[in-house]
């Protein structure tokens, strides 16, 4: 059952709208019927008409407005899953709609046309109702002629700024009247490292604060976080983070103000900005971060969130960490631990592309089912309910040639016991020990010596100079349907800490991210 958040008209506006005039409630939505679809709001429009039309809105109704929404379920072939619609659905997070013109709305509900890579949000702005208001309202009503003088009031708003620019295209002298006293101070929400983690991270170890950002200077830009990455290394690197600092992490952010031509407004960047909602950056490589801050490459219509997942650091970790460290050959047997996570699920699929037999080890049956049924892993083991030491030799009767190790600890000891002579081991991580757990390990040297194993650890930053190669190859594999991905999204910047601890406990399938 999907729950929609909805703003209802609770008390008639009397003068300027006041807190409590609208009320946020939750509403259960019925399952969709044939001909219907379920759309999830992504961008909601905020328009002056919402105040002007208020006397016509019945009390208790969903408040009026347009939105750009993503179709997440559909029984209507004209409105397929994954497409975006612009609809007069009102102030609500989820909507069941029939599609087609909405009889109650004056504007049509349409699938978003191809915006040629421009952001979908323009569907309620420049390429939607306000843009058409400017276009038709100026040209059809006033029939301007080059050389004339045009005055636009409300000149810096959605309609006014567009009208003035059409005026310039038509050769007019344009005078704009607007009302601002200077640039607005932006407040960033920031998670600070307040108290050193002791074992598993606890509420209060990180603290959410607000920080005022200075106006941007020449060469700088202001970026607003859209997707924040949640990664195991955030726990592993904690001893290196100074207390009081912004907590470490990568994010996909949208540039909302810029005085740097290489980072223009509207573009997305992937940056090691930390756990913060807004960042003033200079662009270019961040000397404090090992990974480059870059404008997001063209993802050919795939979601920008992949910039911190399959088409970002974890994807490159899988690509370089498997291929450059273990040099796999078709027919060999690969074991991946942490197999249903961002890196592990990707490694196993590259293994399949390279013709390997792939065995994944992960911590829930739901994860195993995904690995086997959807990603094509050959065999899977639930390390929480099965005896890996008994099961692995049966699933790998010819032994293990390559081990991609994400977890360390007991699981890795057992895999080592099953390695073939001259086996190769890519040590990517050791999450079983990140919270200070005592290792119960064997003496691995015996296996290493007698089987003449090659073991190599790596940090993905080693391949910074080949970063785009990894992203382009992974992108091609995704477009070809050879690499599939899943994201576990947590909504709300204020839920970062919860998303982080959920991931450490294995709550994620695929990449864990926070959607602001
Ligand atoms: N070397 C590098 O440059 C580099 C870069 C990126 C990531 N990494 C490492 O790669 C590993 C995977 O990272 P990721 O981003 O893909 O994270 P992830 O696998 O998406 O998420 C972490 C997963 O670890 C598993 N886990 C937690 N505690 C465990 C334990 N005690 N034993 C076994 N599994 C446990 C959980 O899945 P289950 O349900 O299966 O337990 C959890 O979902 C991590 O060790 C990370 O530090 C290294």
Automatic annotation (TrEMBL):
CDD domains in the cross-refs: leukotriene_B4_DH_like
Subcellular location, principal: cytoplasm
Keywords: Acetylation, Cytoplasm, Fatty acid metabolism, Hydroxylation, Lipid metabolism, NADP, Oxidoreductase, Phosphoprotein, Prostaglandin metabolism
SMART domains per the UniProt record, alphabetical: PKS_ER (SM00829)
Catalytic activity: 4-hydroxynonanal + NADP(+) = (E)-4-hydroxynon-2-enal + NADPH + H(+); (5S,12S)-dihydroxy-(6E,10E,12E,14Z)-eicosatetraenoate + NADP(+) = 12-oxo-(5S)-hydroxy-(6E,8E,10E,14Z)-eicosatetraenoate + NADPH + H(+); pentan-2-one + NADP(+) = (E)-pent-3-en-2-one + NADPH + H(+); 13,14-dihydro-15-oxo-PGF2alpha + NADP(+) = 15-oxoprostaglandin F2alpha + NADPH + H(+)
Subcellular location: Cytoplasm
GO molecular function terms noted in the UniProt entry: 15-oxoprostaglandin 13-reductase [NAD(P)+] activity; 2-alkenal reductase [NAD(P)H] activity
GO cellular component, one term: cytoplasm
Domain annotation Enoyl reductase (ER): ranges: 204-514
GO terms classed as biological process: prostaglandin metabolic process
Quaternary state and interactors: Monomer or homodimer.
Similarity comment text for this entry: Belongs to the NADP-dependent oxidoreductase L4BD family.
Protein name: Prostaglandin reductase 1
Organism in which the protein naturally occurs: Sitophilus oryzae (Rice weevil)
Gene that produces this protein: LOC115880477
